[in-house]
Structures are given as structure tokens and as C-alpha cells.
Input
Amino acid sequence: MKDGKTQILFAISECVPFAKSGGLADVGGALPLALNRKRSVRASVIMPEYSSIPHEYLDKMEHVTHFEIKLGWRKKYCGINKLKHRGTTFYFIDNKDYFGADYLYGYGDYEAERFAFFSIAVLEAIPYLDEIPDIIHCHDWQTAMIPVLLKNRYAFLGIYEKTKTVFTIHNLRFQGMFNPDLMPDFFGFERQMVDDGRAGTNGALNFMKGALTYADAITTVSPTYSEEILTIWGGEGLEQALASRKQDLYGILNGIDHTIFNPAKDPGIEANFSLDDISGKYKCKSALQEEAGLPLREKVPLIGMIGRLTSQKGLDLVEHVMNDIMADDLQMIVLGTGEKRYSDMFQYFQQLYPEKIRAFITFDSGLADRIYAGSDMFLMPSLFEPCGLAQMISMAYGTVPIVRETGGLKDTVDSFNSDTGTGNGFSFSHYNAHDMLYTIRRALKYYEEYPAVWKKIQESGMKQDFSWKASASNYVDLYTSLK
Output
């Protein structure tokens, strides 16, 4: 601690604007900045130095030091570089063998090796950082072995003895499970640590289980998700381990960076607009229809979908009633990559209904913003959703969400109540395709028949404050409690 501030080091595998595959990167790019606006903490970030990081950032990095680290019996080069961005210090772990390819994540046991190296490198880098962290805040399975290493190897060394760890679960389904023999091979720990369950499940090395055992505090990314993961349905096999740490488990809702997701200032959309003057949204809609090759119809309801094309996102529900959805007078634009089953499904329906649906099977953050800005509704019928940022972004852009009541979707979308006239979207509770279809048609009815009510729902969403301010305060309280 320096100048009375608690030093926080975020250890994370991706972070905007440097590298992104999903919402984890948005959290890494926004939460530390929000924390640095608090008087009592100072946050920095450490992540892999991927070759895909844009050169505008790579070229500005300052070399701090380099050294060799031991990965089991291997000796590996480790470079530490840093860059100041938006008032926050970002450190980068440099090793071209592990992070020099054109991908963030791969497959198989090599992923265990890559992120075993990263976890050890984070701890070995600490003596060379500007500040010794009071708390290392780890995110998802890629950094989950840091608490294990800290408690079992580094805590007995002088500069580490007071350092605590916080581990955040962004998605419990992805746990980092590997061959148990990799525990001694990469980390030098006895395999017994896997076999007795401290860092293993069902005989497999489980990175995330290690964090659940050794982290000083555990968080999830929404209050509802923190309850769901304690159940057999939502616990992904770790519900008992989580229940044993219930007193150390906190649900803190993620936020979005309103300096980035702001339709009044977004330079990438056709026309800017705001709560005070939403007229630019209709220009965005026309431009989006033209880009998608759909008929330019101002009055037709346009539904957007953005995200990974996986079963988690409720796409089996969409598949089951897609012909019914297409029977209504509407348009749909889909953006994402993922399981072949769903990319093929959307492309099939695009051929069947060429004037009603367009599927972009790609990752394109600029197009995502244009879909948020130009759509009337945003469909997100997830099987489970730890937090979800897309529904928050859609509301910021005046696009009304249609969601299933799970995780962060339940915490952020207040389904329209016709008796009270309140609500910022539409939702359904049961994981059922026809419940989803009914909810879509309920939204269509208000869009088409009650424009004043629709405008009120739209405005309610745009008024929501999903910034990181409240969440950052909750994290500060948690950090303080650990000191």
C-alpha cells in the first residue's frame, strides 16, 4: 500500500482495447478504470502479450525486464512490458511461443501449459512492478491457479506474505479441466492435490476448483448467478465446493463503459442520438437494413441477436420456432460465431427467408454496435447467463431487450407490466420455445399497436445506469474487508 491506497492487480486473459473474444475483455478494460476513480484504491492490469494486439499499442510499450521462469522441468523466457492507457497501467507477459500465434485460446493440454506459464509469470513478475499488490484479482479459469500457487509456494516469501486473492467466475461452465499428470509436470505440485479435490474434480486437474479452494474471496458477475451456481442445475458439478465457500461468495453485477457504449458519441454508427432526441436511431436502422441487404422498411420491427452461437444462448429455442417467428411481419439480423449446428441453421433460414433474416457468421465489434443502434428489439433467450452485457448495451442504444429470466438478465431487465406501465423490456421465465415466442409476439404487439407505450419502454431502458460506478464501490468494499 502506498499513499494509503490499496493496490489491486487484475490478472486476466483478455482486455479491451488490446485483445477480445467476449465480455471478459470488456470487464478487464472498464472495471480497473472505474476503480481508479476511487480514492482508496489503485488498480493495474496484467495480461498476455498476444501478437494480435494492435501495433498502435505494441509499439508504445515500455520494456520493464525479462527473466527465465521454471515451468516444471522447463526453463522459459518471460518478458514484462507495460503501457499507460486511460490513466491505468497495463503490464504484458511476453513469450512468443505461448502468445505469438494468431489466436487467444486454443484446445487441449497446450492450453493448460500456456496459462500455467501465465499464472507463474504473474507471480514472478510482482517484484518488478511499480507497486506490490495487496490483492490479486483473478478472472476465470485461465488465472485460477494463481491463488493455488500463491498459497502453496509464494506466500512464505517476504513480499507476497500479505497479498490476498479475489477470484471472479465469469462463466462456471468453462473450468479449465486437464490431464491430472499436468499438475506435477507444469506446477511441481504433487498429483495428490488433484486426487483429493483441492484442485481437481472426477480425477481431472481443474484449474477453477483450485481457485475455489484457495482464493480469499470468490465473486460472480451478478447476484442471481451467485445463487444459481449453488444449485445442481447451475453449479456445473462445483455446487458443493461453492456451498462450502458460501460465506466468501459475492454476486456483484458487471457494468458497461458508457464512454464507449454511448449512442450520442459513438463514431461508428450512422447517426448519433440520445434520450432527448432519438431520431438518429431511425437513420441507423435504415443503414443497418441496407448493410444487411434487407428491404428498407422503416416501420417493420427489426430484431437483433449478437453473441456466441452456442446452446447456452438459447438458440435451440430459436431453432424450434424459427418458422413461427418468420411468419410474423418482422426482420432479424444475427451476428456471431460458434457451433456449426447454429451457424448452419441461421444460414438455412437466411436462404429460406432472404427478405426477413440476415446472418453474419463472424466476429465484428463495429457491426455489433451498428446492430445495437439500428435494431428495435434485442433477443437473448439464454439457458443461463452469468451476467450478460449485450442486454445492457442494447438498452443504452434504445433497443428493447427480450430475454429469459436467468442470471444477470433477470437482474437487469424489468419485464413490462401493463398494469403499472413500468418496465424496460420483456422476459419469460421457463426455458420453453413457445414461452419465448409468446414473449416476442407480446413485444411486437406493443411496438406495432401502442407506439407511445413502446417509446416509454425504450426510454426506460436508456435511462438505466449500468455504469461501473456502483459495481466498483462494491468491489472496493470487498477489497477493504480482506485487508
